Amino acid sequence: MRPLEEAFRERLSRLAPQDPLVLAVSGGGDSVALAHLVKRVGRWGVVAHLDHGLRPESPEDLAFVRALAERLGFPFVGERVEVAKVAEARGENLEALAREIRYAFLHRVAKERGAKAILTAHTLDDQAETVLLKLLQGTARGLGVREKEGLVVRPLLPFPREALRDYLLTLGEAWREDPTNQDLSLDRNYLRLMVFPLLLRRFPRAREAFYRFARAREAEEGFLEREAQARLLPDPRFFVPAYRVAPLLHAPEALRRRALRRVLEALDLRPEERLVLLLEEALRGKAGTLPGGHTARRQGGALFLIPPAPKVPLPPGFRRARPGDYLERPFGRKRLVEFLAEKGVPKELRPLWPVRGEGQRVEEVYGLYPPPPEERWMGLALEEARKAFGEGEVPVGAVLVVGERVYTAHNRVEASGDPTAHAEALLLRQAGKEARGGRVYVTLEPCRMCHHALLEAGVEVVYGTENLKEGALTRFGDGRRMKGGVREGECAKLLRDFFARRREGCRSG
Length: 509
What we know:
By secondary structure, the chain is of the alpha/beta class. Helix content is 45%, strand content 17%. The strands form 4 sheets. A 6-stranded mixed β-sheet has the order 3-2-1-4-6-5, sandwiched between helices. Helix 17 links the parallel strand 18 (439-444) and strand 19 (460-465).
């Protein structure tokens, strides 16, 4: 067995130990070498080829790959998608869409064939080009090509492109050349054809250095991504993307920016520095418009990403809010626009909000009225918080709901002389083992102590307003089994009033 084959066999057995495999083969030298290596090391795969319909000669590529699969004795799956037409119809970026469609095709083949891994033919050169390109673009998240992402495995990453071409020549095998790879208007081609030849003359081991750098970054990425993701707490009360502001604003800058890049990527936007800065300004109250038309606006404790009006979803049976609409409630009418403002809905979203009713009389406001059960439970927690206020305790109230059982408590730190007598802790003491599977509604985001106890007890958390000093998420970045923002205005006002009265008492004393 040749040294290249032996090295490949060892990597493949570590990264993808089970057959069958899906082999992504375009017909280029790298992917053809991948198919031959899989065969030569005794593994079994399905050759998959997607024709993007972007070049006149692309059907010849498909025929070439089909013939290759037959010679190797591998099953073949081919498909053609007119990607340019799809991109035009959707108004999306052609390159990004082509990649999305290709990977969707490969995953579909893997599911149909029961494959354990999808092999792609990214090489040492691809890794080096990707690292340098992302550095130049300023999109440093996920700096390199990952060795393994879910089912996708890239066993050729340590091997240079010329070594794979030499391998094919020793086998007497041909491959297809994509003429667009010579187009210098494309950034990657420019780096490959113009920059790297110069770079390698001065730094012969540059590609290996980029590879090591990407591997080191990849090892760090997992940890940093988890920490950043924890700061992205979706606000589930709204039907457009919305995230709690405080956990982001109080995060270390590096984590906040990483989290905001994830927000941009979720909108199919390249996470450029200028767009990250735009979102940072939005967090601090300055609204901005992103490419594609999304408006980034802070309203209350949430950062909203409001799509352009035509893209705001309208559930079946609902219509848009209209001027003059009013909400009919048992205790009186209220102008719909005022009701939406009270609920923290940004002004751009108010005319687009789904409602149901007759004429201008609104009987249902999607997701907001009739009030969802969590608002009722938070109302009960607020009653407990007001009791704490009257007793001179920090006004935090909590309710634990477990099936049909309901437990209530409020802070008792001063009265008991026990610094652990927080409302959440008192609930757990009441419920004991019965708490498992329940949900706590608490007016203030739990501290680290209480949050850990709730997690250990198997309890979910819904909080009203953020705890800026000691919040498990806002201060320490742990938002597991937690969501927030329910009746945040009332919860926050009660705390403000309490501390204002305490300060006034200190001054008068």
